[in-house]
């Protein structure tokens, strides 16, 4: 299981082999974790990752537990 580097800006392209792009807009990206990457918040594998550069986001209640991580310009939502 690999670790995602979120100490600076998160660059999804560094990990593109392990993700499947589900949806992308100008400021957001929704990805499926196909490589079993570990969540940087809890260390457990996550199912999906939502990356946002927007200052505000509204979500429907994500199913199951979730974790958040913050980079200088992104919010990362990991669903388990």
Keywords, please?
80 residues, mainly beta, globular
Description:
Keywords: Cell projection, Cilium, Flagellum. Pfam families: DUF7385 (PF24110). This protein has strands at 19-24, 28-33, 48-52, 66-70, 75-79. The protein is mostly beta strands and 80 residues long. The protein has a domain at 19-53 and 67-75. The protein has a 5-stranded antiparallel β-sheet with strand order 1-2-3-5-4, with no helix packed on it. The model has no long low-confidence stretch (mean pLDDT 90).
Summary of the model, kept short:
The chain is an all-beta fold and 80 residues long. The chain has no helices and five strands.
Our measurement of the CA-to-CA distance between the termini, rounded to an integer number of angstroms, reads 15 Å
**SSE sequence, one letter per element:** EEEEE
Main sheet properties: 5 strands, antiparallel
pLDDT < 50 runs, ≥5 residues? none
Q: Which value, in Å, is the CA radius of gyration?
A: 12 Å
The amount of helix comes to under 10%
Number of strands: 5
Shape: globular
Structural class: mainly beta
Secondary structure layout:
Blueprint: E1 19-24, E2 28-33, E3 48-52, E4 66-70, E5 75-79
Antiparallel strand pairs: 1-2, 2-3, 3-5, 4-5
